[in-house]
Structures are given as structure tokens and as C-alpha cells.
């Protein structure tokens, strides 16, 4: 009993902690609704299983033959079983009922959505039912029938076993003798089971519109003309056989139901398997396109509707391949916003330049956001400076890790299109205390992606603060401390609550520490995505959350999806495979195979107090409407979103990845072309990943102007190449997909263009290079190779950044930043070069401005980076145009020559200065620098370095005193 009490208290402590957590957050109704649903369903499942089982056993026992003549073996069985009979008769139903109750309670979501179902307002093309029937009703009905069938089947087994044990069924040689009572009970049970199977088969015909076939998802010609009618016939046959069993219960003849059962089995083989095979093999296969065309068209239309791509705008795009001077003049704003900072690479730079202390950290992959600065939209790379307990080393005591180091500090933002003179990020918001162009905001981060498991914060008024806010003074000798003053977690204001959390986290210090007072709060479950999942269990969240400064607070923005795999005729997609790429290689999802998706909710999590706010982003989504009925008052309307928040929400990446996976096939909207697969596309592999990697190139957020747009907007894009028909696909561009991700900045009003999908379709006879070809060109170009060899001197590492593709200048411009990192332990990547390609011409320069000018014959017509650009100005006519191929251009040579001459001039000045001061160490360094420059000039001039000796530049002997 003591052991049971201890176990029970541990269970109670966990449940009570959940109540406190949800209550503090304001979502207690979500927890209680789920618990009530689970308890009610457990009781229903328990009774629905236990009562029929118990009743069947009782009937079989009470109607047993009193004077049955048993053989010796059954006598022994009865002797052993009789002392346990009462326990078995009640224990077996109870155990089966518990298992059934647990199983049924897990279906609480299915049950609640059935009870609160919302019509879609659209019908399926085969049966004419509302789509909500397939999403909400049919899965519930099939689940109920399946459960009932399991109950009846178990009851039948136990009835037969009980009757056999007590002599109601006797086997004598080849003869089976069944008493009247046993006959009635077995026949009725069998009849009920077959009736349930008839209902199940009848429902199965509706399920054909969501089943995956060889050609499409949904019922094709064979399904409509053979499978669906066949299942209707089999359902009728099963019902007829069930009636025969009921007749047997009355008249006592088993021949008819046994013959009927054999007929049902034969019919299922002929009607259910053989006939559909014959129709497919001899009728459909010889004329497949003609017969399947209307069903393929159903699949195309409903798939595009289910994934939200039906209204995509397809734009024929004759991409230019000639880099003409001034070509970027009309795209000056896009060019000025080209992002050079790669969020997947520059995290070490953030750590080295902005981490400051070992107990802070930045994530490995940073996020992309945008802010309005000086009236213009600026793409930024952002990250939270979060606390890192592992960095405390020996100081990582319970007191420090849970009471002192409780929060991170500050959001760091760098311009996406700028860099410092030495290649570092240009920070727009940085430092401790935080300062920059983002204005005043609460910098403390108590809720982040890497926050500690739990922290205890708060103290009585007047107590000295103990929470480290940030280091101050020289070398951090002084520390600024703070006391949390918000409402962010359950209060530890009594002995019982302290005991509950001491048990939950298995830490006696929570109960014993003098620093844990009645004013203390305990913060846990602090990851933003996990918090949203707990308060909205019906949502599948995006794999990435990102921080933004909104209305004076740091908030995490989380995108939530409503999904189903029961949308009729819609192609099913593995979501984990669709969203996997080089930035997210191994996603794990609870709900994987989907054929309908909506970004129905935008959620925010306050980084200071952890408050969660859910906004209904797609208020027309029937699945979201259903959940709003289940959990009323948990979602706010989109109209309550502030303009500042609207300016930071974006089109979610996971939704875009799923849509691009679908559009690889379903950009074709005509059945004939779709059937031939002649224009199937796929997403290219990431060209910057390892050669053996099969990971896809991720989509990228950029501010750009697509054809059909009047001005640049914050967008998300991806590219397509032909789908592989052999071992390897041709890496030429066939499509360019972009979506407008800018929701505007008006209070509660979404921008008109938000979510607009545009597809640039390139002609099949136009071999515009894809990302793989472009990367290969960059890697194999001899001029680029020589430059990279120079950059790699001294064991430095050269890393290619993300390869961006922009539809500018009437063609497609590729831009790739190149980072150099020394081999030192505290080194970080510096942006040193930029590679660009347009058509078959490339340039490799120190800055994007220089590279674009070189690429476009001396003047691109636009400026990159932070320069002000006014579209429409006349460019200066270049004297020399670009040259084709991978050998660079004359403009490139002139630029490199001038740079080397400038460096040589500086080196000679350094030599003269060192000589005048008698500093021979500095003189030698300047002399070595000059010798290296001379070698580079010789290589640039095209001379044979092997046969040309570098002039000696030894220092002169010092004059005698």
C-alpha cells in the first residue's frame, strides 16, 4: 500500500503541475477539455468492451448443460479452472476493458472533431458528399466499426472457449455436437460480426477516393467501375450471410450460413480482386490515357486545391543569357537588397563578436527577418543571445544554473546586404546593454530555444537581486543583476507546490533552498515551439521559429498548420521528406503523410514572460473552425494583430517546401501532359553541400521583385530542374517559384499580395544553367581557382555561402558569397569575395558592386549593398564589354590589377616608414608583402611564374654608427 501511495503521489504531482502550468498561461480549458474527453472515452471504451465480453461469458456459463458428459481431459481442465472461475469471469472483461479504454481515449481528437465537424462547402466528384464527410465523419465511423468488430470477435472466441470448457460444444471423432443454447449464442454473435463487416465494406467504397493507387490518389477508372461496385455487392453478400446466421439461431441448421460464408469468401476473391485485375489488365491498360483522363483531371484539380496552389500565376519567362551593360537598371531596388550574409555560415562571427561571455550562446543557424529602417525595408540576420549553462564549467552548481543564470540577454541583428571592410557582419542591433536602430525594447530572454530546463525567478520586494542580467565594468568584473517582475510560471508560494515541483524535477533543492520564497515562480517548458504545441495540440508547427522585436518586446513567431490525409483525390505527400533539405536534414513528425495543409494559425511567444497568443490566420479553414468549437476563446482574430507584428510575420518555409514538392508534378494542370510526365520537375540538390549528399537546396528569403509585381517585396523562392529519368538529372532551370511573404504593416489587415504564388516557366529549349551547373562553373574556373588558392594560404579555409538566384535583368542572376576563415581556434568566417553569374558569364570580385559591374560590361546599371539607388538613371557607357566563358573579363583584370598596384604602393610606403624608424621587423614584413604582390602581378599578366624569378627585395645593411 505504501508503494502504491508513493506511485500515486508521483502521478498526482505530474498532473497537478500540468494544471498549474496551463492555468498560469491561461489555457487551462485546453487541458481540462482533453482530460474530460479522454476520461469519457476511456469509460465508453471500457464499458463497450467489458460489458459485452462479461455478458457473453455469463450467458455461455449460465446456459451450460448441467449433465454434460465430459471426457477426462475436460474434467481436469474444469478442476483447475473452477477455483479461478469467478476471478476469470470478472477479471478477463476488466483487463480487456482497460486496454480498450486506453485505446479509445487516444482517439479523443477524432471524436471531438466528429462531434464539432464543419462542412467544407465543397463536394467530392465521385459520391457528391461534402469533403467534410471524408475528413471528419468517415474516419470516425470506420473507427467505431473497427472497435465494435474487435469486441464481437473477442466475445465470439470467449463464447466458444466457455461452451467447450463446460461441454456445450463436444467433439467426438469427426462429429461436432453443439447444444441449442450454444448454437443460438454462437450464431447470433457470428451474425452480428458479419453485419459489422458488411458496414465496414460499405464504408470502404467511400475510402477509395483517398486511397493511393498506382497512377493517382483516388478512385481511377478501375476503382470507379470495378472496385466501388464490387464493394457494394460484397457488403450486400455479407449482410445476407449475417441473416443466414440469424436464421440458424432459430432453425438450428448450419449448412446455409456455412455455404453462405464460403460464397462470401469466393465472392471477395472474384469481385474484390480478380474482377478489378481483369478490368485493369484487359480494358484500362490498352487505352489507359483515354479512360483515366477524367480521373487524372480530378486528381490534378483537387490536389491543387488541397495544397493551396490552385491560384498560382504561371509566367512564361524567356531568360536572357547576354549580360548587357545597364541591364539591372530596372531592378535597382532588388539589386540593392541582395543578401550576402548567409545565416547558415556566419553564426561563428556572431559568437566571436557578440557572445562576450562563455555563458552566452547563439544558435548554429541564424534567422532572416526584416525591419523598416529610415523608411526603407532592410533584410536582416537575427539571433537571440541566450544563456548557456555548459559554459559555466565548475561554477555550474544548482544555485547558479537555476537561480542566477536564468535568462539570455538581447537580440542581435546584422544587415543582410552589408559587410564591414574586413568582411565582418554590419550589426544594426548589438552589444550589452543592447543598442542599435531597433529602438528600445525589453532585452531579457527567459523563454528561448535553448533556455535551461527550469529556472526559479522572482523575489520579495526589497530583496537584493541575484539573477545575472549582464556583465558590466572592465573585463566584466562588475555584474548587473535583476529580479524578474512578470507573471511567467507557476508560483512556489506554499510547501505543497514546492514539494510537487521537487518531485517533478527530482531536485530536493527546490524544497530546501532559502532563496525559493513565496514570491518565486518556476519557469519550464520554455521552448517556443513546445509551448505552442502544448496549448494547441491540434496544430503541427513549422520546424523553425524566429525572434522579432514587436511593440517593444522580443517575441518568437511560430507558424501552425492544420493537416489531414483524408482529402479526396488529393495526392499524398510525406511531409518529412518534403521539408527535408540541407538546413533540416532529418525532421521527425508525428503526422507525416498529408494531402491537405493550411497555415491556419500564427502564434507568438513572449521571450520575457512566455505568454502565448494564437491568431486565426486562415479563418476560412474548416479544420480550424472545428477546433475553435472544441477550444473556444483560445484563438484571437487576425484583426487583433498589431501592424508591427504584421510586418514581421512571413510565409512559412515548411508550407512552401510542401507546395514546391507538389508543384514539381502538379504545375501541369492538363491530364494528358500530366500522364506523360514529360514536364516533371524536381528541386535541385544543394550545390554547396558535400558531393555525396542528396539533400535538397533550401528555399531562401529575399527582398526582390518578380515579373508581375509593381515593387520589390519580401519573398521566399526556390528553383526547379527536370526530374531525373536516369541516374542523374540535367541541371538546367525549368521553373522558378516565389511567394510574396510580406503581410504588410497595417493593424489587423493582411496585405493584398501576401501568399501570392508566382511560377516563372522557362522554355524547354532554353538551357539556362541550374544551381548545380553554376556551382560547377565557379569551382572549375581557372581564374577563380587562382584567387581561391591565394585566399587559402596559411591553412585558411574557404567556404561557399548560399547560392542565390534572382530574376533580374531579364534573366537569372546567380550570387554566391565566399567566406574565408583562418585555422585559429577563435577564428570566424569573413566575407572576402563574391561570385556572380549571368548566362554563361561569371565574375569574381571583392564586392558585389564590383562583381556586377564587371559582369555587365563595366556598369550593371544598379548598385548593391547599402548604397542609395534611384531606378531610371542613365548608366555610364563602358568602354569594354564582358567576355563569355569562365576566363573572366577585361574589366575584372583591370580591377584586380588596380587593387594589386594599390597594395604594392602601400607596401612600399610601409617599407620606407619602417626604414626611417629603424624597425627591421616591420621592414621585413612589408618586404615580404611586396614580394607576394609582385608574384600575383606576374600571374595576372599571364607570364610563366616557373621561369620568372621574383626580384630580390632584401633590406639594405644598416649604416655604421
From TrEMBL:
It holds the Pfam family UPF0182. The chain crosses the membrane at residues 35-54, 87-108, 144-166, 186-203, 232-251, 258-278. One of its GO terms (cellular component) is extracellular region. Belongs to the UPF0182 family. It is found in: Cell membrane. Its main location: membrane. Residues 870-880, 948-961 have a biased composition (Low complexity). Keywords: Cell membrane, Membrane, Transmembrane, Transmembrane helix. This is UPF0182 protein GE115_12850. It is a multi-pass membrane protein. HAMAP family: UPF0182. It comes from Agromyces agglutinans. Residues 859-893, 942-961 are annotated as: Disordered. PANTHER family: UPF0182 PROTEIN SLL1060. It comes from the Bacteria. InterPro entries: UPF0182.
Amino acid at each position: 500500500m505504501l508503494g502504491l501511495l508513493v506511485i500515486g503521489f508521483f502521478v498526482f504531482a505530474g498532473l497537478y503541475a500540468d494544471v498549474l502550468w496551463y492555468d498560469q498561461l491561461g489555457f487551462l480549458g485546453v487541458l481540462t477539455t482533453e482530460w474530460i474527453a479522454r476520461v469519457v472515452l476511456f469509460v465508453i471504451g471500457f464499458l463497450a468492451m467489458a460489458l459485452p465480453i462479461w455478458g457473453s461469458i455469463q450467458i455461455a456459463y449460465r446456459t451450460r448443460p448441467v449433465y454434460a458428459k465430459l471426457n477426462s481431459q475436460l474434467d481436469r481442465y474444469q478442476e483447475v479452472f473452477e477455483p479461478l472461475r469467478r476471478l476469470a469471469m470478472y477479471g478477463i472483461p476488466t483487463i480487456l476493458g482497460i486496454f480498450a479504454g486506453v485505446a479509445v481515449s487516444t482517439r479523443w481528437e477524432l471524436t471531438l472533431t466528429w462531434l464539432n465537424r464543419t462542412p467544407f462547402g465543397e463536394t467530392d466528384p465521385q459520391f457528391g458528399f461534402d469533403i467534410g464527410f471524408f475528413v471528419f465523419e468517415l474516419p470516425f465511423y470506420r473507427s467505431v466499426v473497427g472497435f465494435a468488430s474487435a469486441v464481437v470477435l473477442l466475445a465470439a472466441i470467449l463464447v466458444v472457449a466457455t461452451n467447450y470448457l463446460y461441454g456445450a460444444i463436444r467433439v467426438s471423432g469427426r462429429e461436432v455436437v453443439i447444444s441449442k443454447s450454444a448454437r443460438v449464442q454462437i450464431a447470433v454473435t457470428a451474425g452480428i460480426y458479419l453485419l459489422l463487416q458488411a458496414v465496414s465494406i460499405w464504408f470502404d467504397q467511400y475510402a477509395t477516393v483517398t486511397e493511393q493507387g498506382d497512377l493517382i490518389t483516388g478512385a481511377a477508372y478501375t476503382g470507379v467501375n470495378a472496385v466501388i461496385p464490387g464493394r457494394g455487392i460484397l457488403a450486400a453478400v455479407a449482410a445476407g450471410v449475417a441473416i443466414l446466421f440469424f436464421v440458424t439461431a432459430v432453425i438450428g441448421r448450419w449448412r446455409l450460413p456455412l455455404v453462405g460464408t464460403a460464397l462470401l469468401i469466393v465472392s471477395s476473391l472474384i469481385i474484390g480482386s480478380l474482377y478489378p485485375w481483369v478490368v485493369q489488365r484487359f480494358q484500362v491498360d490498352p487505352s489507359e490515357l483515354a479512360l483515366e483522363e477524367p480521373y487524372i483531371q480530378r486528381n490534378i484539380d483537387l490536389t491543387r486545391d488541397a495544397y493551396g496552389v490552385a491560384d498560382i500565376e504561371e509566367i512564361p519567362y524567356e531568360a536572357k543569357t547576354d549580360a548587357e551593360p545597364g541591364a539591372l537598371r530596372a531592378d535597382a531596388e532588388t539589386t540593392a537588397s541582395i543578401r550576402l550574409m548567409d545565416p547558415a555560415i556566419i553564426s561563428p562571427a556572431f559568437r566571436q563578436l557578440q557572445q562576450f561571455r562563455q555563458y552566452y550562446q547563439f544558435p548554429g543557424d541564424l534567422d532572416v527577418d526584416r525591419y523598416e529602417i529610415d523608411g526603407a525595408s532592410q533584410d536582416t540576420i537575427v539571433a537571440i543571445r541566450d544563456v548557456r549553462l555548459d559554459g559555466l564549467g565548475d561554477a555550474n552548481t544548482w544555485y547558479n544554473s537555476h537561480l542566477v543564470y536564468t535568462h539570455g540577454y538581447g537580440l542581435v541583428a546584422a544587415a543582410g546586404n552589408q559587410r564591414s571592410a574586413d568582411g565582418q557582419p554590419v550589426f544594426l542591433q548589438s552589444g550589452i546593454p543592447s543598442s542599435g536602430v531597433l529602438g528600445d525594447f525589453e532585452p531579457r530572454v527567459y523563454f528561448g530555444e535553448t533556455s535551461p530546463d527550469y529556472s526559479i525567478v522572482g523575489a520579495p520586494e526589497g530583496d537584493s537581486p541575484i539573477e545575472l542580467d549582464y556583465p558590466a565594468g572592465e573585463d566584466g568584473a562588475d555584474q548587473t543583476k535583476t529580479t524578474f517582475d512578470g507573471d511567467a510560471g507557476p508560483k512556489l508560494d506554499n510547501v505543497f507546490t514546492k514539494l510537487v515541483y521537487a518531485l517533478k524535477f527530482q531536485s530536493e533543492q527546490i524544497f530546501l533552498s532559502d532563496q525559493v520564497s513565496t514570491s518565486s515562480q518556476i519557469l519550464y517548458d520554455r521552448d517556443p515551439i513546445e509551448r505552442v504545441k502544448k496549448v494547441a495540440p491540434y496544430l503541427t508547427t513549422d520546424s523553425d521559429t524566429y525572434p522579432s522585436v514587436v511593440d517593444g518586446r522580443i517575441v518568437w513567431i511560430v507558424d501552425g498548420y492544420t493537416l489531414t490525409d483524408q482529402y479526396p483525390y488529393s495526392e499524398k505527400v510525406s511531409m518529412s521528406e518534403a521539408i527535408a533539405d540541407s538546413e533540416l536534414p532529418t525532421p521527425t513528425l508525428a503526422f507525416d503523410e498529408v494531402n491537405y495543409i493550411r497555415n491556419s494559425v500564427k502564434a507568438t511567444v513572449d521571450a520575457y514572460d512566455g505568454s502565448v497568443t494564437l491568431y486565426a490566420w486562415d479563418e476560412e479553414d474548416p479544420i480550424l473552425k472545428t477546433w475553435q468549437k472544441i477550444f473556444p476563446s483560445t484563438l484571437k482574430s487576425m484583426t487583433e494583430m498589431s501592424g508591427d507584428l504584421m510586418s514581421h510575420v512571413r510565409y512559412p518555409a515548411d508550407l512552401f517546401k510542401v507546395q514546391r514538392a507538389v508543384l514539381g508534378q502538379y504545375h501541369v494542370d492538363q491530364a494528358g501532359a500530366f500522364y506523360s510526365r514529360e514536364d516533371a520537375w524536381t528541386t535541385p540538390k544543394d550545390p554547396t553541400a558535400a558531393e555525396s549528399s542528396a539533400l535538397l537546396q533550401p528555399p531562401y528569403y529575399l527582398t526582390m521583385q518578380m515579373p508581375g509585381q509593381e515593387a520589390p517585396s519580401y519573398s521566399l523562392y526556390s528553383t526547379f530542374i527536370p526530374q531525373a529519368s536516369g541516374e542523374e538529372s540535367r541541371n538546367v532551370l525549368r521553373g522558378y517559384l516565389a511567394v510574396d511573404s510580406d503581410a504588410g504593416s497595417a493593424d489587423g489587415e493582411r496585405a493584398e499580395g501576401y501568399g501570392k504564388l508566382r511560377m516563372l516557366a522557362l522554355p524547354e529549349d532554353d538551357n539556362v544553367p541550374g544551381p548545380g551547373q553554376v556551382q560547377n562553373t565557379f569551382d572549375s574556373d581557372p581564374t577563380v581557382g587562382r584567387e581561391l588558392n591565394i585566399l587559402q594560404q596559411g591553412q585558411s579555409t574557404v567556404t561557399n555561402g548560399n547560392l542565390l538566384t534572382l530574376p533580374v535583368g531579364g534573366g537569372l542572376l546567380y550570387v554566391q558569397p565566399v567566406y574565408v576563415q583562418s585555422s585559429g581556434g577563435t577564428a570566424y568566417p569573413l566575407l572576402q569575395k563574391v561570385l556572380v553569374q549571368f548566362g554563361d558569364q561569371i565574375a569574381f570580385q571583392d564586392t558585389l558592386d564590383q562583381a556586377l559591374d564587371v559582369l555587365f560590361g563595366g556598369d550593371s546599371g544598379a548598385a548593391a549593398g547599402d548604397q542609395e539607388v534611384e531606378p531610371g538613371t542613365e548608366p555610364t557607357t563602358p568602354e569594354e564589354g564582358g567576355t563569355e566563358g569562365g576566363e573572366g573579363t577585361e574589366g575584372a583584370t583591370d580591377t584586380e590589377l588596380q587593387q594589386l598596384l594599390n597594395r604594392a604602393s602601400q607596401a612600399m610606403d610601409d617599407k620606407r616608414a619602417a626604414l626611417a624608424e629603424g624597425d627591421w621587423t616591420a621592414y621585413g614584413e612589408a618586404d615580404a608583402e611586396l614580394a607576394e604582390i609582385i608574384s600575383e602581378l606576374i600571374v595576372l599578366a599571364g607570364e610563366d611564374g616557373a621561369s620568372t624569378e621574383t626580384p630580390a627585395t632584401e633590406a639594405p645593411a644598416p649604416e655604421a654608427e
